[in-house]
Amino acid sequence: MNGEKGMQDDFAGMLMQADALQLEGRYLEAIAAYDEALTLVPDSALAHNNRGVACMALGRLSEAAMHFRQALEAKPDYAEAHNNFGVALKRQGEGEQALACYVRALEINPRYAKALLNVGTYFFERRDYPEALRWYGESLRFEPEQVEANQNVALILEKLGRHEEAAFHRRIAFGRQSVFIDLSPSQERTVLVLWGAGVGNIPIDHLMPVDTTTRVVWIIEHGDTMAPLPDYDLVFNAIGDPDVLGSVEDKLYEFSGRCQHRLFNPPTAVAGTRRDLLPNLLGDEAVVVPPTWRIPRDQVAETVQQLDEAAFPILLRPTSSHGGDHLHKLDAKPVEQDLALWNAEFYYVTGYQDYRSADGHYRKYRFIFIDRKPYPYHLAIGNDWMVHYETAGMLQDEWKRQEERVFLANPVGAIGERAHAALERIGMALNLDYGGIDFSVLADGRVLVFEANATMLVHPEDEAGVLAYKNPYVRSILDAFKAMLTTGAMSLPQR
Question: Which CATH number fits domain 291-351: 1.10.287, 2.40.50, 1.10.10, 3.30.1490?
Answer without folding.
Answer: 3.30.1490
